[in-house]
Amino acid sequence: MLEAISITEARKDFLPLIDRVEDELYRFMVTRHGKPVAVVLSYDEYSRMVETLKLAGDSRLAREIDHGAAEADQGRLIEFVNTGDNGE
Predict the structure, then answer these.
(1) Pairing between strand 2-6 and 27-32?
(2) Which of 11, 15, 45, 54 is most buried (most C-beta within 10 Å)?
């Protein structure tokens, strides 16, 4: 959930805002004069976003995904069979 709050409100309630971001997976868009200027989100969420962007920018991975999609379009699929073996 992305909730808009003013920069004045964010400054006044900074610690509770951080607690909500960390504990409840909230995100806040901080505004100044009604215009977005910043986003406050948990570090874990930020880290996941950065990792996703890295993967999206990986040209080798993009080619492999395209290749797999083309094979699927041609009906060249491999059936997944779960044997229940966790490699232990």
Answers:
(1) parallel
(2) 45
Residue range 5-15, pLDDT digits in tens: 999 999 999 99
Pairing of strands 2-6, 35-40: unpaired
SS3 2: strand
Q: What is the pLDDT of residues 29-56, one digit of tens each?
A: 999 999 999 999 999 989 988 988 888 7
Residue 20 to residue 11: CA distance in whole angstroms: 14
Please spell the DSSP secondary structure of 27-60, one letter per residue: EEEEEETTEEEEEE--HHHHHHHHHHHHHHT-HH
**How far is 1 from 32, CA to CA, in rounded Å?**
20
Place of tokens 């490699």: 87
Q: What is the pLDDT, as a whole number, of residue 87?
A: 57
Beta bridge partners of 2: 27
